[in-house]
Amino acid sequence: MSAPLVKPKKKNPVERTRLPTRPPASRSRSAQGLTRAAAEGRFEMQVCSECNTLQYPAREVCCSCLSEHLQWKPVDNRGELIATTTLRHSNDLYFRERLPWRVGTVKMAAGPVVVAHIHEDCVADGPVRLALKLDRSGQAVLHALPEKDTPNMNDAAQLRESACDPKFRRVLVTDGKSAMGQAVAKAMLDAGASAVFLGDPTRWKTVAAFDTLAADPRVQIVELDVTDTDSVDRVAASIGGKVEILVNTASYLRDGGILGRKDVILARDAMEVNVLGLMRLAQAFGPGMCFRAADGTNSAVAWVNILSIHALAALPARGAWSASMAAALSAAQTLRAELGGAGVRVLNVFPGPIDEEWEQLTPPPKLAPSAVAKAIVKSLQDGVEDAYVGDIAEEIRERLRENHKAVERELGNQ
Amino acid sequence: MSGSQRPRLGYDGVAVVTPVTIPYVRYSTHSAHWWLGRALGALIRGAGIAKSDVDGVCVSSFTLGPDTAVGLMQHLGMSPRWLDHIPMGGASGVVAVRRAARAVQAGDAEVVACIAGDTNQVDSFRNTVSQFSRFAQDAVYPYGAGGPNASFALLTDYYMKHYGATREDFGKLCVAQRDNALKNPHALMKKPLTLAQYIDAKPITDPIHLFDCVMPCAGAEGYLVMTEDRARSLELPFVRIRSTIERHNAFPEDPIQFRGGWAMDKDALYAHADAAPEDIDFLETYDDYPVINMMQFEDLGFCAKGEAAAFVRKHSFTIDGDFPFNTSGGQLSVGQAGAAGGYLGFVQALRQLTDSAGRTQVSGAKLGLVSGFGMINYDRGLCSGAALLERGHAL
Fold it and tell me: Which side of chain B, N or C, has fewer Cβ within a 10 Å radius?
C-alpha cells in the first residue's frame, strides 16, 4: 500500500532549486496515437480493420495480415504482470534523479505484451489495469495500476509524476469574484490544495460567496486584474514563486455577432480579457512556474485555461466572444509548447454553456460551475490535457468529428 | 522442422582463417572507421596478402554512422566486388560467415574480410541505446531508460521465477568466465572475481547486479573467408564450417523471452553436421547477461528447457574444466565492443581450432560451437545464430 504523501515543509531558501528535466520524448508519428488517447484519458491502441489484431508497439501495417488499415480504438486494459524490475540505474537524467523506478512486462488480456511503469501497489504475477498517461515530456506512457484502487494510490511518486494532483499544492485562481472562480477555489481546497491565491479584479464590488471563501485561512486574496499589466506583474512579483497550479478563471462573455454593431469595442474587450489577459498571465507567471517544475513534492505542474467548446466551433450569436475563445485556444497551444519544455502541463477545459449570470438567456442544459470545477480537479488528478465537460461540449465535439461543415451550418441557425 | 525443406548444401571447400582482435579499450577518441580499418589491416598482414586481394567485405558496426559499409570502402580505399553490411549485433559473427562462405563457394568473391568494430566515446552508449530502434524509442526507452540492463532484468526475473535458477548459478558462470579471462591478454577485466564478490555487487536493475553486466568498450574483431585451396597455398591454418543456422523474430507468440531461435533450428544444425552436442569440445555463446547463456545451453541441446541451472551446478566452465565455455572470458570479462561483441566468440573459436589461443587454448579442441544473439528491438532479442566449426588441420 502506498504511504500517504507528507505535506512538504516550507522551502529552505538557501538550498538550490532542482531544475526541470524531461523523460525521453522522441516518438514515431504512429506512436502519437497513444498521445491523442492519453490527452483525454482514454485507453486506445491500434486494431487492424481487416483481421482485428491488436498492435503494440504502434505500427504502420498489421503484424498479422499486413493490412495498412489500422484504427485507433478503445481496447480492454486488463493484463497480468509477468515480470518486474526496479531500476537503480538509468541512462537518462530525468530518471536518474527519480530512482528507484519500477518497470515491468504486462501481458494484456487483449493480446500484446507491453513494457510499462509499474505502480508500487501492483503485485508480481498479479492482475493489473493499464492506463495511458502523459509523462512530464507530454508524451503518452503506459502505467500499470493495481486491479482495484488502493489507499493513497495517487500519492505514489511514479504516478504523481504523470499527474498534476492539487494535493499539497498552491493554486492561483485568477478571478475569484466569478461563480466559476469560487467553485474552482473550493474544489481545489477540497482536493487537498494547501493554499489558494484568489484573485480580486473588482475590489469595489462586494460578493458574499467571495467573502465567505476569503475567511478560510488557506485562502489569500490578491488584487489581480488580467487587463492591467502592472497588476499582473505586481501579483507575480509577490506570489509568483509559490504558484504551482494556475487556473485562469478570468472570462469575458457577451452576446453579439459581428455585423450587428458599428464598432469593435465588444470584441476588443473580449480579447483584452480572454486572450491578452492569458498572455499577460503567461509572461508574468510562466517563467517562475517553469523554474519550479521539478521542485519536489509540490513542484509547479499545471496551467489551466477554462475555454469553451466554442473555441472549436464559433457560435455566431456570440461571434466576437467565440473569436476570442479561438484565439485563446491558439495561444494556449503555444503556451503548451513553451511550458512543456519544463514539463508544466497546459490543461485546456472545453465546457458547454455554464449556469452563470452572463448566460442567463441560454437554454438548459447548463453546467453548474461546481461541475466544471470538479472536472478540472479530476483532469488534474488524472493528468489529462484536454477536457470536454458536459453533454453539450461532448456532443458538439462528436458532431465536429462527424461533419464539421454541418456544425457550422447548424450553429449559424441558433 | 527441416523435413519438408530441400537439403542444404554443405560448406565444402570453404576455409575461415586469420582470427584478429584489435585490443579493446574502455573509451576511445577514435571513430569506428579507425577500429574497422585497423582490423582490415591486421587481416591483410596476418594472411600475407595484398589489400587488393580482398575482393569481398562484410561489415558490422553500431557507431559507423552516418556511414555504412559503402562509405567505409571509400574511406579505406577498397574496391570489393562483393559487399555486405550486417546490422545484427550479437549474431553478426555467425551471420557474416554464412554470407561470406556462400559468396566464396559461388565464386562471387575470392577473399572476404569479415570485420566488426565500434568505438566507445563517453556518450556513445547512451546515444546508441536512446536511438536503438523505433520500437525501443516508442515503447521501451521512455520507461526508465534502463537500456539493455532493464530488458534483461525482466527476462531474468521471469526465467528465475519459472525455472528456479538462482543468482549463485549465474554467478558460477561469471566467475568461471573471469577465470578464463585472466588467461586472455585482450580481456579488459584483469582481476579475479569470487562468487562472494559477485553476490555482494551493487544492484543495477533487480535482479541484475554489477557483474551481470558487460562493460561497453571500443575494439574490433575480424576473420577472412576464402577457399581451402587458397588457405593451403598461403599456408594458413584454417577452420571448416560444418553447419550453421540463423533465425529472426522466433516465437513471437511467447509472452516474454524464455527461449531463442536456436530452439527452432538446433535439430537442423546438428543434422547438417551429422554431429551431436556431446561431440563438442568447447562452446562460445553470446553472453551479454548470464541468463542468455542459460537459454543457449538449453536451446542448443546441452540440457532440456528449464534445466540449465542444474546443468550449471553439474559442470565447471573453465578452459581446463569438463565443459570449456566462453574461453576468452566472454564479453562479461573481455568487454563489449559494440558489434565486435557479436564476433568475440567466433574469433575465439577460430583461435581454438587453429592452435592460436595461447593460454586460453583448450587442449585437443577439434569441434567447437559458436552461437550468437542480438538486437533487443523491443522486449526481446530477435536475431539468433550458431555455427559448428571444425579444425582444418590434423591435431
Answer: C
CA-based nearest residue in chain A for residue B155: A83
CA distance B268 to chain A (A): 27
Q: Give the neighbor-by-neighbor strand order of the sheet with A386-389.
A: A219-223, A195-200, A170-173, A245-248, A302-306, A345-351, A386-389
Residue B10 grid cell: 554443405
Q: Angle between the B290-299 and B148-163 helix axes, to the nearest 10 degrees?
A: 50
Q: Do A114 and B139 touch (CB under 8 A)?
A: yes
From the list A396, A390, A398, A393, the residue with the least C-alpha distance to A410 is: A396
The topology (CATH level 3) of A170-412 is Rossmann fold (3.40.50)
| Helical H segments across B107-243, by residue range | 124-130, 134-139, 148-163, 167-181, 195-199, 228-233
For chain A, the average pLDDT equals 97
Any alpha helices (H) in A154-215, and if so which ranges?
157-162, 179-190, 208-214
Domain boundaries, chain A: 32-162, 170-412
Residue B155's pLDDT is 97
Task: Determine the Cα–Cα distance for residues A53 and A71; give it in Å rounded to an integer.
Answer: 11
What does the pLDDT look like over B369-383, one tens digit per residue?
A: 999 999 999 999 999
Q: Which domains does chain B have, with CATH numbers?
A: 14-123+218-233 (3.40.47.10), 146-213+239-388 (3.40.47.10)
Determine the distance in angstroms separating the CA of A347 from the nearest CA of chain B, rounded to an integer. 22
Subunit contact B144:A84, Cβ cutoff 8 A: no
* Helix or strand holding residue B341 (H, E): helix B341-353
**% residues pLDDT > 70 (chain A):** 100
How far is the C-alpha of B389 from the C-alpha of B244, rounded, in Å? 9
ipTM of the complex: 0.94
Residue contacts between A and B (CB atoms, under 8 Å) = 119
Give me the residue from B141, B149, B256 closest to A113, CB to CB.
B256
Evaluate whether B90 touches B373 at the Cβ level (below 8 Å): yes
pLDDT in tens, A363-404: 999 999 999 999 999 999 999 999 999 999 999 999 999 999
Q: Which residues of A touch B255 (CB under 8 A)?
A: 82, 105, 107, 113
The SS3 call for residue A383 is: coil
Interface of B with A in 184-213 (CB under 8 A): 202-208
User: Interior CA angle at B357 toward B351 and B361, to 5°?
Assistant: 115
Quick: pLDDT tens for B212-233: 999 999 999 999 999 999 999 9
In angstroms, the CA B78 to CA B75 distance is 8
Shortest alpha-carbon distance between residue B139 and chain A (Å): 6
For residue A400, the tally of other CB atoms under 10 A from its CB is 16
- Report helix, strand or coil for A80: strand
Is residue B69 very low, low, confident or very high in pLDDT (cuts 50, 70, 90)?
Answer: very high
